[in-house]
Specification:
Length: about 180
């Protein structure tokens, strides 16, 4: 492999494409994105969603509202993605527990880890909220997938499809800001 090719591979292993995330979400049949403005994914994902003609963006005031809306959409055979930061996930845990976990609903959450240090595992973060997010997802018994580079994007579509096939929640934890 040439030096240029090695450099390209190294850069790709440290980037996360917002456009590729949206393609994977749409490929999984998602029609609705429910979100409180999210600083972590705003530039790379949320702004693209807002401009996408195929996706319907539903802006809400509080994160727990997204959970009930996503559940309602699933009853109408519509797929939704909840796009929130880890702070919103922690805020909405009771709604997630009651609706997604206890009622076995296919709630797909994309959780941005705002302020997570680059190339530091979330559980090793010096930021308390970042550090406890994955363990809290575990406590709820929710399957989770860590999405940190373009190589991880291939996890998105199967995770969403499984959530809807098995009527179970799933968390897609976004480790770095998508570009």
């Amino acid at each position: 492999m040439t030096k240029t090719a090695k450099t390209a591979v190294a850069v790709a292993s440290r980037t996360l494409s917002g456009a590729a995330i949206i393609r994977a979400v749409k490929d999984a049949g998602v029609e609705y994105v429910l979100s409180v403005p999210d600083l972590h994914t705003s530039e790379g994902v949320l702004k693209r969603v807002a401009n996408d003609k195929e996706l319907k963006l539903v802006r809400v005031c509080k994160e727990d509202e997204t959970i009930g809306i996503a559940a309602g959409l699933s009853f109408g055979n519509k797929r939704a993605l909840v796009l929130i930061q880890y702070t919103g996930f922690l805020y909405a845990m009771n709604a997630i527990r009651g609706v997604a976990c206890e009622n076995k609903m296919p709630i797909v959450m994309m959780i941005g880890l705002l302020t997570k240090e680059p190339d530091v595992a979330p559980r090793e973060s010096s930021k308390f909220g970042v550090r406890i997010t994955e363990p809290m997802i575990d406590v709820l018994g929710i399957e989770q997938h860590y999405i940190d580079t373009d190589d991880d994007i291939s996890k998105i579509k199967p995770a969403i499809e499984k959530a809807y096939a098995t009527s179970t929640p799933v968390a897609l934890v976004i480790g770095r800001r998508p570009i």
